[in-house]
Specification:
The protein is mostly beta strands. The protein is 7% helix and 34% strand. The strands form 13 sheets. It has a five-stranded mixed beta sheet, with no helix packed on it. A five-stranded mixed beta sheet has the order 10-16-15-12-13, with no helix packed on it. A hairpin with a 6-residue loop joins strand 7 and strand 8. The N terminus is likely disordered. Keywords: Signal.
Length: 749
Amino acid sequence: MNFKRSQTFRIFYHLRSCSLLLFFLIGSSACLMDDGKKKRSFFFFPSSISSESGTVPVSQPVFPPISGKITYFSANTIYLSGQSGAFEFEDIQWSSSVDASYQIRYGATNCSDGILYDSSSVPASTSITVRIHAISGAAPLAVGNNSVRICLFNPSGSTLWDSYAFSVERDDSPPTVSFSPSSGTFGSSAPNITISCSDSGNSGCQAIAYRADGTAASISNTGAAASGSSLYSSSLSLPNNTTTNLSAIAVDKAGNVGAVNSGTYVVSFGNPTITIVSLSQSIIKGTGSSVLRWKSDIAGNYSVRVGSTNCSDGTSLSSGPAAANTNIDSTILGSSLSAGSNTLRVCLTTAGSNEGNSTTNITLDNIAPQIIATSPALSPNATAFALSVTQRTFSLTFNEDMDTSSTPNPQHRDQTQGGDPEIKWPGAVGSWSADKRTYTLNVQSNLPEWHKFYLLYSSSSFKDIAGNVVASSPVVSVVSGNIKLNHGTIYDTRNLLPSDSRQTDCSDENGLTISCAGSGQDGESIGLPSGLLPPGTLTGYSSDYVTADIRNLRYWKTCLVDYEWNGTTCAKICAGAFKWNGSSCVSDPGNPAKSFNRSVEDCSSLNVRNAGSGYAGKTTWRVPTISEYYTILEYGGNAGNETILEAYFPGILRNNYERYWSSTNGITINASNRYGASGNPSSPNPNHSIENLSMGPIPIGYNYSNPSLLVTWGAWSVTVFEGITHVSNKLKSTGWTNQFNYTSLCISD
């Protein structure tokens, strides 16, 4: 019994150990072979084993069935569209826990109905991608909501293990956008614009893009805003005084892109401020015009009106649209104005119906200006024809404000020559008074002695501010479009200190030698000092050589006009018939010979040298008078051509008996210009006639009743070999036999 009991125990022990091992194996097998169905479980415990018969009974094991499971990785709802450019398909991902087979069914409520879309095998624990199409698959999806089911079977497809359903929304309808408030004009406050999206296809709006620059907004099917567009997130605030051209577009979750919607918003509240920028002319004539420049701080429609008290009356001269803060030029015609002062009114109405206006004045003047005074006076003749040679300024005074943009230089006409030839005065300058009513011409140079001339202006040179040309007045007549100012000069009354001429002989009226004592002739004055200094320069003008007369306070140009100092003497700068004008060689026909008129012009041109500062800083250069020549002539030389000394004027022309013009005109003596008993004043001697050719006498009271009788064609000159000579014709540049060239020195105070 003990053996049996011991044997029984050993058998029990071994059986129990085996049963535990078997239980473990069966449990493991159940884990591997479960088909997912809940069937009976098998548990084995060996505690009930009996050994009565001496043998151990063993039961056959029962294994649980194997079952696979689906793991789904994608969205439970996907959105597709059958429209081009939208999302026609989407890939889903899932896996199976064991090797299996599967089916994809559209519109299924279980794994037996619906439409079979796809089927295949699937390895265990491997991600599977299945592409779901809206229209291109085995069967198209219906528009709207579709249930799509994944069915998992055993590898042979005989046993359903698991299934998983998800939704597919097919949306073929693009979304629409709308604005709130709608587009329009806002004249009281600025709106905040809300952009809304609506999708009738039920996938729902994905994103909205917008632009505010008048260009159509654009968006991709993924919801990305195109370049220049912005994604809408909150309401848009529009600024005042602007026009905003807004556009928007939306895309839904199925990738359908809608149509662009646009709206124009005009925001304009508050009254505009009109600024008058300028008026080109405040006074115009009937045939003239003026440009009114203005601007508004707010855009709108404008009108420019004349003769109005508000923006509804008067006459509209121009109208149109105006952008904000942009200059508008409106032309005002004189023909649209009334004589006298006119009120111009600029009116502007904004898009919000707010109005502003501003005014300025313009005057219509059709009355021609007149000269009411001249200086020097034109009458009486005793004044007009008895000017000092130092009369350098000539003024005209008008009866109204004048256009000062013109500073005319008149023609200077010599009345003592046939045809009244012009003498040019390039150094003359003109200027207007501050009140715009007086024009003054400054010839800068002294006038010639016994010079009968007139200044000739074109009447069109003088216009009032309106542009009206000067007309005749009691003071000055306008004839054939010209203003003629007649004048004449007497001799230079300023005293000059003589120098010793080195003349030692004196003679009577018959040319016979007499004693010089008490004669008053040059020979009586011996040992007088010369006032001339050797050639030199003045401060600031190191290239301009002058010969100074310190006794008479005069400056002579050391060289002729077109000659310059070369370091030792005067030399001609330009070859042949050319002259030096201070900066270049210019044509000068006949050079170096010159007429009287050309000599006056050349000396006057020195006044514009050095950018208007004048040669050597002097602006009164002119032809010397005969009296001024007297202060430099000497007769003590032996060469016969030394009356103008080389020491003071080195290099001047002296090889052809040159004559040097003076600015002293001659006066014709005849019976017509004598004083007689009928003269005014009457002469104590009826036979008394003009004496001393250049020196008068002409009593101040003489009325010059016929100034044309005071005519001469000639002027005085000096020569380097004999002193004083008279030239019969001032237009000549050579002597009677085309010899003896004429030229001139120049002098300045």
